[in-house]
Structures are given as C-alpha cells and as structure tokens.
Specification:
This protein is mainly alpha-helical. The protein has two domains: about 70 residues, no CATH class; about 60 residues, no CATH class. It has ten helices and two strands. The chain has a two-stranded antiparallel ribbon with strand order 1-2. A hairpin with a 5-residue loop joins strand 1 and strand 2. Helix 3 runs antiparallel to helix 9 and helix 4 packs across helix 10. The radius of gyration is 18 Å and the shape is globular. It starts with a helix and ends with a helix. It binds iron/sulfur cluster (2 copies). The site of one iron/sulfur cluster has 10 residues, from loops.
Amino acid sequence: MDDNENLTNPVSKLPLAMDLERFREKSTNRAKENKKFLSTLKKKNPRKLDEEFHQVHKDVFKEIDCLTCANCCKTTSPIFYQVDIERISKALRLKPGDFIEQYLHVDEDKDYVLKTSPCPFLDGDNYCKVYESRPKACREYPHTDRKKMVQIMDLTYKNTLVCPAVFEMVERIKKLIG
Ligand code: SF4
Ligand code: SF4
C-alpha cells in the first residue's frame, strides 16, 4: 500500500486530507483544457447545465471536507459588502470604520477586500473565527449550486485553480458530457 492509498477514501477515491500541493500542480496542468471546456459550456442549455452542476456539487461536497482544505480562505478574498462589514464589525465589537481600517482595502474593481491573505479570521484548524457572521461571498463560495451557472463559466474556471471541489466537479462534467 503506498502513501497515497493510505490517504484515500475507498468509496470516493478522493483524498481525506487535502494535498494542496498536488492539487495546485494538477489544476495548473489542466488549466488550458479547463478554460476551453468551460467556455464551450456557455452555449449549453442553461437549465440543463444548472442540473448537471448542482448534481456534481452535491456529490463532490459529500466527499470533500472543507475543513481539510480551506484553500479559498488561504489564497483569495471574499468581497465585503456594507451589510457584511456591519454584521462582522458588530460581532467583533468594532466600529465599521475601524474594521475597514484594520482589515480591508479597496481593490481595482472598487470593492472592499481583505488586506492580507490568508484571511485573518481563519484559525489554525481551518475554522472560521467569524463563521456565523462571515460575508455572503464566503457562504456562497464556490457558487456551483447557484442558478444560471452559464453566466459564471469564467469565474468557475478561475475557481478550478483555487478550489479542489470545483476542479473535481469540472472533471466529472467533462466525463458526463465528454
Ligand atoms: S470551498 Fe473549495 S477551496 Fe474552499 S475549503 Fe471547500 S474545497 Fe477548499
Ligand atoms: S471570513 Fe471566514 S469563511 Fe470567509 S475567507 Fe475568512 S476565514 Fe474563510
């Protein structure tokens, strides 16, 4: 039995402990192919595409435990809308202005995002310290269960490079519709 087999879930064949180094290598190697494939999906029937994505989303998240990963929290920032800022500031007992000053900056799209990465609210065990108050964007990430998936194929491609679950979903959809 090799080391990899040791870490493999016998049912799903997905790793129990996420090997992010290996994920980065695999997703980078497939980047060109995935970009092209996801771009072809823009022409698909939107309802059919939603059904396919929502099914693989359900299947893959039954097999992947985000607590073994947290790559989204480690490498990207959610957008913080005003309502998010107010909710999190309240939870942290900070004034919204102080929260912004301490944690956020405005990006090139004029959105509030984190100043630093990994996210300062990610703890050592991959738990979110502001879980109950986390931004809407964190709640909805990686957006593969939303309606009108056809509109977010470019974002989904970007997420194949961040999220092992999205990478796996795209691999399964490729097999489904070849
Ligand atoms: S959403 Fe994706 S990137 Fe984030 S923790 Fe879960 S599997 Fe990892
Ligand atoms: S607020 Fe929580 S869920 Fe959102 S990026 Fe930070 S640690 Fe992750």
